[in-house]
What does this fold into?
Amino acid sequence: MRPYLVAGNWKMNTDGKSGVSLATALVAGWGGGRPGVEMAVCPPFPYLTAISQAVKGSAITVGAQNCWHEAPGAFTGEIATEMLADLGCKYVILGHSERRHILGETDELISKKVKKGLASGLKVILCVGELLAEREANQTEAVLDQQMSGSLAGIASDAYANIVIAYEPVWAIGTGKTASPAQAEAAHQYLRDWVAKRCNSQIAEKLQILYGGSVKPDNAAELLGQANVDGALVGGASLKGDQFLPIALAAANCYQG
Ligand code: PGA
It folds into this structure.
């Protein structure tokens, strides 16, 4: 069975004090972890150092929410993947719908960031997902195909070992509306088949595909129980220890069951 990854995307939330106390609560609750489940937190850039320090020695890993695709140099306001690796980040989230739709990131830019993240030894959590209008127009698979092809252009098969896909239907993010377990499973199956065709079935079988979009303690077990759902990328519910921990524990139950 594939291991689960339950990652908290803190987005532009917390401050130094509340971030550290959240991380400290997670360490207390998760400690050495559970078999078959990795917990990761992705705080805002300014707090990466403090949060890395707070989770040190625990089973919790750390990721960043974005990066720039050039080597360190004259890029005012940007963050290099070398810096993220230096801070002990294991993951970088790329292609999140808020960056695609609010900041205007294109698949072309995202693919450069994916390559650069991988080259710096980071694991990439690549987000893909359709808008509500696209789902209603039966365009979900076409959109996923376009985002996967564009964002993973030129990525060699052996690099997929360091890539995690997060399926995040945009209409489910922060809205309280979750994809039904069947809708999530169908999209995840499509994505796994996509990778099987692009690479091969062994690589596709190993690929972790996370679901994201209003994951909460009360819907986590059913979503994580789907055959092709290998974890969750959690926004709102990752900001409270008493919501994020039960989601990770639901993954641990699914792994054992
Ligand atoms: P949400 O966010 O859990 O608040 O819907 C998920 C995400 O954007 O990664």
